[in-house]
Amino acid sequence: MLIRIPQVLTPTEVAYCRERLEAAAWVDGKATAGEQSAKVKFNLQIPVDSAEAKELGDLVLRALGRNALFATAALPLRVLPPMFNRYDVGMTFQAHVDNAIRAIPGTGQRIRADVSSTLFLTPPEDYDGGELVVQDTYGSHEVKLDAGDMVVYPSTSLHHVNPVTRGSRWASFFWTQSMVKDDAKRQFLYDMDMGIIALRQDLPDDHPGVLAMTSGYHNLLRRWVEI
Ligand code: NI
After folding, report:
1. Distance 41 CA to ligand 1 centre (A)
2. pLDDT tens digits for 114-147?
3. I want to staple 145 with a disulfide (CB 3.0 to 4.6 A). Which of 98, 120, 139, 180 is the partner?
């Protein structure tokens, strides 16, 4: 399932990211691709060890830390430092599945990629094409969001980025190891959490239904998390 998380970054933060990225040294995106995906990946990235990547990656991580919707959708255990890419006219990333294992740069540690995220940094009216297209059990979904908005989707999904035909599409992207690795379980917990939030808008917190649902959520989480 795809979950849209609006306004992860404020307009000021988006503008700051774009200003810093303007000055960055962009390299071929194949640098961080696996063997299959390197053959279908045609975009640009900033190097993971560059000053811009570190500074802006931290900015994105801080924004994620204050975002309750990301927490409930991804149930994050570890987040790989966010990276930054761009697709100019003609650039594309054809169908692939993201690598299962990713090394955390400079640490020797690895994470399992359970949840993929794309945080849009360009307003949709500034470019044509460039939709992220994700396949799931309910078909194919095209995603093109406002600058500052993010989509999260299971890393198990086959996906691609349509060729950009006008302008340039800039984004941050990263992977999360979730406390709940199974997509279906994570989805169920998300639906349940959203249901509880909706119930609590209409019912008092000591309502037996709210109490039962909240207890059920936490007790399921307790059975399913791996930390
Ligand atoms: Ni991908």
Report:
1. 9
2. 999 999 999 999 999 999 999 988 899 999 999 9
3. 120
How many of the other CB atoms lie within 10 Å of CB of 102?
21
Q: What's the 107 CA to ligand 1 centre distance in angstroms?
A: 23
In a shared domain, residues 117 and 170: yes
Distance 130 CA to ligand 1 centre (A): 13
Cα–Cα distance for residue pair 86/170, rounded to 1 Å: 4
- Say yes or no: 193 and 166 in one domain: no
Whole-number Å distance, alpha carbon 24 to ligand 1 midpoint, is 22
The domain of 111 spans 3-178
Number of independent structural domains in the chain: 2
Which DSSP state fits 186? H
Are 116 and 169 part of one and the same domain? yes
What's this model's pTM, rounded to 2 decimal places?
A: 0.95
Distance 188 CA to ligand 1 centre (A): 24
